[in-house]
Amino acid sequence: VTESRCSSVFLYLTRDLGGRTQLAAALERGPEGELWFAPDAGRISSGDLRGTQATLGGLLGAHALEGPDDLVDVAAHLVELPELESATAREPSLELRLLGLEAEALGARWPAPGGGAFEVRAAPLRLPDGRQGALLASRGAPEGPWLRALEGLEPEGRALLELLAELGLPLVSGATWLERWLGELALEPGPPTPAEVPALVDGLRALLRGVLRGGNPGPQAVAGAELAVCAEPAGAQLRWRFELSWADTERAREVITARFAAEAVAELEAVAEAPHQPFWLLFFDRRGELGSTLVGVVELRRYLGENLHLLEDGRP
Amino acid sequence: VTTMLELAHGALRAVPTDALSGVETFALVRVTAEDPRTGRRAWVAHPAVTRLGDARSEWRFEALPALVAGLVEVRLGGGFAGPQLEAHVPAEVQEQLRRLAPRTWQLLVQHTKLLQRDESFQLELRAGALHLRFRPAGADPAQTLASPLLELAAVLRAGPPGAPQSQSSWSAVGAAEARALLVEWLRARWLHRRLPPGLRWLAPEDQFALRRSSSEPRLRERRNGDGVPTSLELTSRDLTAPLDLDVAPGTAVPFDVARAGLGWLLDPSRAETMLFLDGAGRFPRERAQAGPGL
To answer: Is the distance from CB of A237 to CB of A257 less than 8 angstroms?
Structure first.
């Protein structure tokens, strides 16, 4: 059986804030190259669903995967069972694409229902044309919203995600970068006091949000301190400066991040509330001499459907 | 001379008439005469041709009791030299004749050489058990076929499979879950070729399971050299020993017939107790050249 005559199942895996593996998208490429998305209840008749408590959408959409068995179970639901009339052995391939997730030890072959075996291959998802990216899980995803950097994202891009985390799109569970920094300042002698930290964090976040949305908010006074946030181009990147000044003390922190398009941030904030499209891709493009720039957001399944030939062809 | 009476596939019609019973059984028939010395065949001329359209087809819509009585009378009137009479009746029409026109059926049985028209598989549910019979084309007696697959489906239609002999009974929940697993497996493997969401594939154990269950029934299939599942091993927390179930479709049973039979047995909304199928698993019907549109 040649590979072209066998179907391939693509599972796009990521990990939520709690460390659980999540299925971000699943699709099947049939023997003729036709694409099927899952969940797609239309592939299975209603008679098939009768008497069962799970729906196909419930099975495949936003499905927490505990181990390799769960992955093979999902894949087994996507491929056709073998025809009974012909005795050809099947070797459907199971392609795991990892989105900000390390490859785990996973056997290379697993039994498939009805005979034959799955050839399992795992690789990180790499965007074509040297683009970099990140994954956004919207409110519709488990524990959403959250962000996760894809493999290959440069440190500046990662630093920009850290700032986006301040807008309520966390990268990790626990304290954000601003909370950690101000928490450290509160432990040192002088202002701020630990009680003032939440108000200061909120004040800095409001200013940060203003800058990320393309504005230029002036300094603001919160809890006896003057706060300022500004972003200046620094070569190919952006240099952010966060300032806190009291009557006799001044604290500041600088961060270098990738550039961003203000429309992309606005779009990102909007789709983070999407209830029905759980996963989105953030794109970082290189624009001429400028370093990588956050340029836009695309729904993950739509992107995969339109670009699978670019993403998957020419792979071993 | 041999006279052949052929009845078309499909349904007989009970048409209201002025006959004593109030209804007359009509059928689509074709009457042919064959001369054994010359081997020549001819459509028997019939006075019933009234419309030009009728003359274009060899099939005629006839009041069956009168036609059969007439043919039998000619046969008896001619003695041994008289024409031999053959009746080629599809199995599903034979079944209807028994019910709708018992006297005509008696005449056919007693006075004609009754033959099966085209091959036919007859699936019948009697007291919850499946009886599968095959009639080859042109033969008279039906052969009984064994199909463990369809017999299991008939058992599942009525309820859970029986407990193994080593165990006197099993819990209602465990039995119901085992039945659900078997039904889903039959549907997935034979009808849809897709696993339904309610089934879980346990790759390390090479087993099928229910996604949600309390007794955790599991199925492992054993296949023959052609990849066709021939038996299942059912395990469950409610069973002390694995239950072996034969699911071979049966040697003489075409896969299409097995599939059509499963579609019928596993669908609780299909209430008929008898099913006739041709070799391709379809309800037998007359080919396109069958004649006038009725």
So the answer is: yes
Q: Quick one: DSSP state of residue B250? A: -
Helix (H) or strand (E) holding A96: strand A93-98
**Closest CA relative to residue A231, chosen from A253, A199, A263, A247:** A253
Judged by CB atoms closer than 8 Å, whether chains meet at B198 and A52 is answered as yes
Residues of A in contact with B149 (CB under 8 A): none
> For chain A, what's the residue count?
316
Tell me how far apart the alpha carbons of residues B164 and B215 are, in angstroms, rounded to a whole number.
16
Nearest Cα to Cα of residue A30 among A14, A10, A6: A6
* Interface check B190 vs A, CB under 8 A: yes
Q: Half-sphere exposure of residue A153, counting CA atoms within 13 Å on the CB side?
A: 27
B197 touching A (Cβ < 8 Å): yes
Give the residue from A195, A140, A194, A204 showing the smallest Cα distance to A166: A204
- How many C-beta atoms surround the C-beta of residue B135 within 10 A? 22
B222 and A CB contact within 8 Å: no
The per-residue pLDDT string of chain B (294 residues; one tens digit each, 9 = 90 and over) reads: 788 899 999 888 888 877 677 788 888 888 888 777 877 776 665 555 555 555 666 788 888 888 898 888 888 887 666 678 899 999 999 999 998 889 999 999 999 999 999 899 999 999 889 999 999 998 878 899 999 999 999 999 988 888 777 777 788 899 999 999 999 999 999 998 888 878 899 999 999 999 888 999 999 999 998 889 999 999 999 888 899 999 999 999 999 999 999 999 999 999 999 999 999 999 888 865 544 443
Report how far apart, in Å, the C-alpha atoms of A218 and of each of A164, A204, A205, A265, B40 are: 20, 11, 13, 20, 109
* Cα-only R_g, chain B: 25
User: d(Cα A125, Cα B161) in Å, to the nearest integer?
Assistant: 48
CA B82 to chain centre: 36
Quick check: B216 contacting A, CB < 8 Å?
A: no
**C-alpha–C-alpha distance, residues A16 and A143, integer Å:** 7
- The shortest CB-CB distance from A43 to any of B187, B194, B225 is to B194
**CA–CA distance, B190 with B34 (Å, rounded to integer):** 45
Complete edge-to-edge strand list for the sheet that includes strand B229-235? B199-202, B207-210, B218-223, B229-235, B243-246
- Kind plus residue range of the DSSP H or E element containing B168: none
Q: Residue B241's closest CA among B163, B181, B183, B174?
A: B163
The most distant pair of C-alpha atoms in chain B lies apart, rounded to whole Å, by 77
Side chain identity at residue B90, one-letter code: P
CB B123 within 8 A of CB B261: yes
Instruction: Give the gap in angstroms from C-alpha B174 to the nearest C-alpha of chain A.
Output: 16
Helix (H, G, I), strand (E, B) or coil at B279: coil
Residue of chain A whose alpha carbon sits nearest to that of B184: A48
- Which DSSP letter does residue B149 get? H
Secondary structure in 3-state letters for A13-64: EEECCCCCEEEEEEEEECCCCCEEEECCHHHCCHHHHCCCCCCHHHHHCCCE
Asked whether the ipTM of the predicted complex exceeds the cut of 0.85, the reply is: no
B201 touching chain A per CB within 8 A: yes
B189 contacts A114? CB cut-off 8 A = yes
d(C-alpha A190, C-alpha A173), whole Å: 29
